[in-house]
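Reopening this ticket.

The earlier resolution said the output was attached, but the attachment link was broken on my side. Pasting everything inline this time so it's all in one place.
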Amino acid sequence: MSADENPNDNFVSWLAERPEIEVMHVAVCDLNGIMRGKRIPIEQALRIADGGIRMPLSIVGVDVWGEDIVGNPLVFVGGDSDGICTPTGRGALPINWTSRPSAMIPLWLFQETGEPFYGDPRQSLALIGRRYAELGLTPVVATEPGILSGRSERRFRCTADFSLYWQAA
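Inline output:
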């Protein structure tokens, strides 16, 4: 995506092409990799493109069960203040396992001032990426999980495109 493109245009046009979508799920990724958010009527989904939606900053700092972490300063020191959530630029994702046609928009958190909220793992990762870019570096990640298959002890490896397709080594 270029700097001139608006990440909101992606999901707005996607929704316009899919009038059957009735419900929109909006969510941020917490520190455990769990998407947390809320369900909104499709009529309110376009509101996200016009300035975002508010959610508590503490939503990203909970344990795997969704409980506040004891001593978390986001909740216990200054109260549970809200941040502004805007689309990450990933676009809308169809949800096909619900009774009503639905979709999800991944969001990330910003403070009231418009500054990124670095308690949001996506914002922290983006900051690290920018720091590498300033040094002229590009981080590259590769995985090769070794999986034993029964008695044959055949090893499997992930293909280079990370597409969840596994091939025998």
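Reporter confirms the inline version is readable. The first strand starts at residue 23 and ends at 29. Residues 1-7, 151-169 have pLDDT under 50 and may be disordered.
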